[in-house]
Amino acid sequence: MTVECEGGAKLREVAMQNNLGIPFGCENGICSTCLIQINTGMENITERTEQEEATLSIRSAAPEQRLACQCKINGDVEFEF
Ligand code: FES
Fold first, then answer.
1. Owning domain of residue 34
2. Which of 5, 14, 70, 78 has the fewest Cβ atoms within 10 Å of its own Cβ atom?
3. How far is the CA of 55 from the centre of ligand 1 (A)?
4. Using an 8 Å Cβ cutoff, are 68 and 12 in contact?
5. What is the mean pLDDT of each run of 10 residues along the chain (81 residues)?
6. In a domain? residue 54
């Protein structure tokens, strides 16, 4: 599925508005329910927040994994979950 959004849009809002199906829990970067795998376009996503970094570190997440609730997007991004 391909969707379009404004630059700087919150991925959580884009996902919910377009029914992408990403599961969200806390929406605060703590529970990691919204873990996604970025396939391309990592450079178009805002850097990890301190909270996201802490949560991903606990999960031993790979560099290409992100928490959708913490990301803003500024260009093309392809991901899966
Ligand atoms: S919904 Fe809990 S970390 Fe994203």
1. 9-80
2. 78
3. 9
4. yes
5. 95 97 98 98 97 97 98 97 96
6. yes
- pTM for the model stands at 0.96
The SS3 of residue 6 is: coil
Buried b (16+ CB within 10 A) or exposed e, 32-70: bebbbebeeeeebbeebeeebeebbeeeebeeebbbbbb
Residue 24 maps to which CATH number? 3.10.20.30
Which atom of ligand 1 sits closest to the CA of residue 32? 3
What integer pLDDT is reported at residue 10 of this predicted model?
A: 98
Structure token pair of residue 33: 């329910």
Assess if residue 72 is contained within a domain: yes
